[in-house]
Amino acid sequence: MGSSLLPSSPQIMASRIAVVALLLAATAIASPALQANAAEVDHSKDPFDLFVFRSLWPGTVLGGRAAPSNQIINFTIHGLWASYWNASAPFFCSNEQLDLSQIKPLIPDMDILWPMLWVPDSSDSSNEAFWSHEFTKHGTCAMQMKQYDSQFKFFSKTLALKRATPMLQMLEDAGIVPSNEKTYSLEAMRQALAAHNYDGLFICQPPPAGATLSSQQLLSIELCMDKDTLAHITCPDSLHQQVDESGGCPKDSIWVPPIVYE
Asked: Closest by alpha carbon to 203, among 218, 223, 193?
């Protein structure tokens, strides 16, 4: 599964620290919230409370189809979503449309880290259409804060966050490896992330017809992030409850299907 291409366990913390530095440097003017004493900052007028960062497992999303690139070896990005503590979220916060010219330097990385993997169900199922949807629905809301007030900032910081959270490596460190023969418990997955100080929300879906196993497949992992720094924070109970009610994983027998390549 290409584990040798991922950072080793001792590198995860170093990677996280380095990317946090990159996230802060990516903005020409630092956020006042990062400069002022937290007790002196009034967050009552902030447009949202936190981010939910959702990553997708390609082996599940592809449903047995071959990955569009053999460089897709890890979780990919679904989106970075502005959210509220009560688990609701703002959507489509302006009429601004995606302008690919503003993010041109990022596109080679986005093709690998943020690809469209679902079965095409429309006339335009390109990566660009996927990015446009994520930007207009969620990115326009993130842009209400100075740290993310350009398309380049929003997408570059999301990519940096992806690199700082090697979730497949975290699972593999705990012996959870993609397989068509083994399944894993939800608690084992939670503990795998907890070993690296992450609190994850796990989403599963039924297997496709004719699949090797009948167990629920791991679809995605969500992490809650501080809206100012993109540092990991504990998800509120409301989000845990929302996941449990709408698409959470079973306690046992979770299948992590391998990514298929041509």
From this structure: 218
* % of the chain at pLDDT higher than 70: 81
Helix (H, G, I), strand (E, B) or coil at 130: helix
pLDDT digits (tens, 9 = 90+) for 78-134: 999 999 999 999 999 999 999 999 999 999 999 999 999 987 665 677 999 999 999
Residue in 141, 143, 107, 149 with CA at minimum distance from that of residue 127: 107
Q: What SS3 state is found at 95?
A: coil
Pairing of strands 232-233, 76-83: unpaired
Helix (H, G, I), strand (E, B) or coil at 58: helix
Q: In angstroms, rounded to a whole number, what is the distance separating the alpha carbons of residues 229 and 234?
A: 14
Give the DSSP H or E segment for 53: strand 50-56
Which of 174, 95, 86 has its CA nearest to residue 135? 95
Question: What pLDDT score does 40 carry?
Answer: 47
Of 139, 157, 223, which Cα lies nearest the Cα of 22? 157
Which are the catalytic amino acids? 78, 134, 138
Residues 143-192 have pLDDT tens digits of: 999 999 999 999 999 999 999 999 999 999 999 999 999 999 999 999 99
Q: Output 109-116 pairs: Cβ under 8 A, ≥24 positions apart.
A: 109/159, 110/155, 110/159, 111/69, 112/69, 112/71, 112/72, 113/76, 113/77, 113/159, 113/162, 113/163, 114/76, 114/77, 114/158, 114/159, 114/162, 115/68, 115/69, 115/72, 115/76
